[in-house]
């Protein structure tokens, strides 16, 4: 059974978190976009940018919350949200280990001279500028994550790369809805309608966990702590990198993206961009409340 349609996501936390990136094989409709550094035209009901949300990244050290959208990257820690960098459609988005370093994929924005699709692009300054790494004009990675060994990405084929420039085809016979990894680990989770596929070698090989819940969104709070969200919003937690799961609470509203970071008391903090706004859990997913970031 396919996952229900939802506005698409992916990002990751700069330190010890990865965002879930939801797969979409359809194009977005162009829209007018604000200039970089300008306040966004946020949705009146949610306080979030009105563009389709493809990714969510939370920096556990600084508290910065980023949304990767059809209209580019937005800092929703600011009130109102502030656009960062060019207006490219960031279908795939994930954070690397170093501060301010992100990888992305998707389509060039209006007026851009970049090839379409973008292939893999990289920023080292928090999204203000981007460099082209590989597969320009070839790949639109809708699912994308960073691991200790490199990059795992899906453009219709599941691929791995140690440097973002050279690629190998992974041994996989599934199409992931989301990829979740962490720059401090080689464990990767791929969500599918049949269950969670898990890799312990940076995405090279995979095994289906038939005992795991069927989750649509996944994120790592650390090298071993992971969270997953079912299509209906039920939240699950794993302390062992997705090997086993414990059911937690419930997220209201249609989830578009999730991210997680380490909590000081051992419980991960979990963020979710939903149809009703940005929510956060500070008790490991048991309860959620509106986030102050949006």
Secondary-structure map with pairings?
Blueprint: E1 53-58, E2 65-69, E3 72-75, E4 82-84, E5 89-95, E6 102-107, E7 120-123, E8 131-134, E9 143-146, E10 151-154, E11 158-161, E12 168-169, E13 178-180, E14 188-192, E15 195-199, E16 207-209, E17 217-220, E18 226-229, E19 234-238, E20 246-250, E21 255-261, E22 269-274, E23 277-281, E24 289-290
Antiparallel strand pairs: 1-2, 2-3, 3-4, 5-6, 6-7, 7-8, 9-10, 10-11, 11-12, 13-14, 14-15, 15-16, 17-18, 18-19, 19-20, 21-22, 22-23, 23-24
Walk me through this protein's architecture:
The chain is mainly β and 294 residues long. The chain is built from no helices and 24 strands. It has a single domain (53-290), classed as YVTN repeat-like/Quinoprotein amine dehydrogenase (Methylamine Dehydrogenase, Chain H, 7 Propeller). It is 0% helix and 36% strand. A 4-stranded antiparallel beta sheet has the order 1-2-3-4, with no helix packed on it. Strands 5-6-7-8 form a 4-stranded antiparallel beta sheet, with no helix packed on it. A 4-stranded antiparallel beta sheet has the order 9-10-11-12, with no helix packed on it.
- Strand order, sheet with most strands: 1-2-3-4
Q: Which architecture does the CATH hierarchy give at level 2?
A: 7 Propeller
Mean pLDDT: 86
* Alpha plus pi helix count: 0
Q: What is the number of domains?
A: 1
What's the CATH topology name?
Methylamine Dehydrogenase, Chain H
Name the helix and strand elements from N-terminus to C-terminus, one letter apiece. EEEEEEEEEEEEEEEEEEEEEEEE
Oligomeric state of the chains present here:
single chain
CATH class: Mainly Beta
* Largest sheet data: 4 strands, antiparallel
Distance between the termini: 34 Å
Could you name the ranges where pLDDT drops below 50 across 5 or more consecutive residues?
6-33, 40-45
Number of strands: 24
């Amino acid at each position: 059974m396919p996952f229900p349609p939802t506005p698409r996501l992916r990002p990751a936390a700069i330190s010890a978190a990865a965002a879930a990136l939801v797969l979409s094989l359809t194009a977005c409709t162009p829209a007018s976009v604000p200039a970089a550094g300008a306040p966004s035209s946020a949705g009146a009901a949610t306080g979030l940018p009105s563009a389709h949300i493809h990714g969510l990244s939370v920096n556990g050290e600084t508290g910065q919350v980023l949304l990767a959208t059809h209209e580019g990257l937005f800092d929703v820690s600011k009130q109102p949200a502030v656009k960062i960098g060019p207006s490219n459609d960031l279908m795939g988005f994930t954070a690397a280990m170093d501060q301010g370093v992100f990888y992305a994929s998707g389509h060039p924005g209006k007026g851009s001279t970049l090839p379409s699709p973008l292939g893999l692009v990289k920023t080292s300054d928090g999204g203000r500028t981007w460099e082209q790494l590989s597969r320009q004009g070839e790949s639109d990675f809708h699912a994308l994550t960073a691991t200790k060994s490199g990059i795992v990405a899906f453009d219709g084929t599941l691929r791995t790369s140690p440097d973002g420039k050279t690629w190998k085809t992974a041994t996989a016979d599934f199409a992931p809805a989301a990829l979740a990894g962490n720059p401090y680990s080689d464990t990767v989770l791929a969500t599918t309608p049949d269950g969670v596929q898990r890799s312990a070698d940076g995405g090279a090989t995979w095994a289906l966990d038939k005992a795991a819940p069927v989750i649509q969104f996944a994120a790592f709070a650390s090298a071993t702590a992971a969270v997953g969200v079912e299509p209906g919003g039920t939240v699950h937690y794993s302390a062992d990198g997705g090997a086993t799961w414990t059911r937690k609470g419930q997220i209201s509203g249609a989830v578009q993206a999730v991210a997680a970071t380490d909590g000081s008391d051992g419980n991960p903090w979990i963020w979710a961009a939903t149809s009703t706004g940005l929510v956060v859990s500070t008790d490991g997913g048991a309860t959620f409340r509106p986030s102050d970031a949006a």
